Amino acid sequence: MYAWRLACSVARPLPSRYVHRMTVAPPLDAIRAFIAQHAIPLEPAFLGRPFRDLLPTLEGLRAEVRRHGLWAPHLPREQGGLGLSLPAFAEVSAVLG
């Protein structure tokens, strides 16, 4: 019964308020570049130092992510996110690993 309801709900057109959100492409190149330039170089420190020692560095990186407009891709723009649809967020998640 649940599968039938799900199939019926998927077949319905989406309300217009969601159509724009689904057309927003995720900034995959910017995310890849940020990971390569900032996150990957931190890996040795994560392996060799206590996590609490890295907290100030991580706070700085979080602020940098916000400045680049890449923070919280799953949240609506009104809440400070990128407003990505679930498929677009899945692409971001694949890049993040």
Tell me briefly what this model is:
The chain is mainly alpha-helical and 97 residues long. The protein contains six helices and no strands.
Topology:
Layout (H helix, E strand, L loop, with lengths): L1 H10 L4 H7 L5 H12 L3 H6 L2 H17 L18 H11 L1
Keywords:
mainly alpha; disordered N terminus; 97 residues; single chain; globular
Description:
There is one protein chain. The chain has 6 helices and no strands. The chain has 97 residues and is mainly α. Helix 3 (28-39) runs parallel beside helix 6 (86-96). Helix content is 65%, strand content 0%. The longest helix has 17 residues, at 51-67.
Strand-pairing-aware structural class: mainly alpha
What is the gyration radius calculated from CA atoms? Answer: 18 Å
Spell out the helices and strands N to C.
HHHHHH
Low-confidence stretches: 1-7
Approximate shape: globular
Largest sheet: none
Specify the number of helices: 6
Span between termini: 35 Å
Helix content: 55-70%
Look at the structure and give the mean pLDDT: 82
How big a fraction of the residues is strand?
A: under 5%
Kindly state the number of beta strands. Answer: 0
